Amino acid sequence: MADPFFDVVIVGAGLSGVGAAYHLQTEAPGRTYVILEGRAAIGGTWDLFRYPGIRSDSDMYTLGYNFKPWTQAKAIADGPSILGYVRETARENGIEPHIRFGHRVTAASWSSEDATWTVEARTADGGSVRFTCGFLFLCGGYYDYEQGYTPEFPGRDRFKGQVVHPQHWPEALDYAGKQVVVIGSGATAVTLVPEMARHAGHVTMLQRSPTYVVSRPAEDKWANGLRGYLPAQLAYQLVRWRNVLFGMYFFRMARRKPAQVKAGIIKMVRDQLGPDYDVETHFTPSYNPWDQRLCLVPDADLFEAIKAGRASVVTDHIETFTETGVRLKSGAELPADIIVTATGLNLKVLNGVELTVDGRRVDPAETLSYKGMMYEGVPNLASSFGYTNASWTLKCDLTCAYVARLLNHMAATGQRQATPRNTDPTVETAPWLDFSSGYVQRAIGKFPKQGSKAPWKLHQNYALDLMTLRFSGLEDGVLEFSNPVPRRNSVPAKQAA
Q1: N or C: lower Cβ tally within 10 Å for the chain?
Q2: Is 170 exposed, middle or buried, given 0-12, 13-18 or 19+ CB atoms closer than 10 A?
Q3: What is the span of the domain harbouring residue 25?
């Protein structure tokens, strides 16, 4: 039996994959597609993570889809609400029947002769299946769902309590009245600490170094009020663009005047915690704003927990775990019944899919990224990857619309293959992401590179990408269109007579 063929195979049924399906249906109608999802449910990140307080670290007016207004009161939404939004989108648009659950894609090989990808997937029962397609769209996110990052902690085996990683949160974990130490200072840690502090005896956030923490109202009063006067989509777009432009302005200021922006952020923290709190030690990073992602706390919940005495921050290095907690390099000991290792993620390159093009294995680290979505020398493949300095979905929406436009152009011109080619010897390479966060630095050497000039340069700028991806021409001299649709053999006129 021949492997089933689809015009497009989408990998992943999370926020990006559902968005990709919508754009295909509406902007490239008539294309057949299937979504291969390794897990058993729609939602990706928002279905995987179950730790207390899980929420967005971006506002939903930019994390939401461009085509589906976010109408709930909270702009900084909890995980279950976001999961419901993604699943509602899939249900409303007839996307669910296109999803094959329990299909984890492991490899894909391209044949120029057939202008086809052969996609291999491992099924939930341990078997394997193959699909073929004309275009492969990787929408499975950027980190490893199987395992989070946990460094080696001396003495871990001695600890008599429970050690938990947020990526694998036990459903029945009871922390009421208990002493909890959360190791980490990133988005997960600042989410967990105030939420667990509601019921725990005490929660300590133990960090090696501080992170920038910014408070923002959970509800956007202007947005909520606007919906009472304007149609939902118009109100949504106005708020979305306001937030996009403010985010771009803030990022630009952080790059141009880092000392001024840093001072402003630290002042806001000091205003929250008061003049007697040691903000210099616990909330003043050594790096500039946006060298790493800022941490967002809704309604100052982290600061409120600290002021109420339900939570505290300790900045120190771990010497060893003990039977009853953690001993620090300073000699201090932190008692703990539960230790949460909110120590980060493991990144996975190209969704963990091994790629082969005409028998040649593709090494992602040796390729240049074209417009932040396609790859040098790799035909008919794109990946959906969001911004590091703004909401994930802003870039994904643009990427999905570009792919639909590309498919339409190929159909209209009769070309079966689109391949980015770099013929400019003056293009220099740089790491794909200019980000100093540990989870990025641990894996950045395995990722594709970006170039020193367009279209190989990765922009962290929504307005610029909007012009480049939605309105610029596809025939740019770099994206090579080839492999025309074969003509059917015609019958000579005399023979036909």
Answers
A1: N
A2: exposed
A3: 5-145+346-484
